[in-house]
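Dear H.,

Thanks for agreeing to be a second pair of eyes. The structure we're designing against is below in token form, covering all 84 positions.
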């Protein structure tokens, strides 16, 4: 799993907090503050906005979709491992 983000972005912080709460390990990819320079983001998602979460074939570009996805796919894993 990879998270493309910038450090100052509030929506990115929400996603990082959710990943931490669920105890999910991920590759942290901090991208440029300048949107047109976010080539990596564009290559995986077809747009320049962050956060972008890539989990296998799933590419999510909306904060609330990412949070929903994490809850649906990984919340049960966190409960079983005792991290929640």
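And this is the sequence the design step returned. I haven't edited it by hand at all.
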């Amino acid at each position: 799993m990879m998270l493309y983000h910038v450090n100052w972005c509030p929506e990115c912080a929400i996603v990082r907090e959710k990943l931490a709460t669920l105890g999910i390990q991920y590759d942290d990819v901090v991208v440029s503050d300048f949107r047109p320079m976010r080539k990596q983001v564009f290559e995986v998602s077809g747009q320049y906005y962050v956060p972008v979460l890539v989990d296998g074939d799933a590419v999510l570009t909306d904060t609330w979709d990412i949070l929903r996805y994490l809850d649906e796919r990984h919340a049960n894993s966190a409960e079983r491992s005792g991290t929640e």
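Two observations from my side: The first helix runs from residue 10 to 22. The chain has one domain: 2-81.

Warmly,
E.
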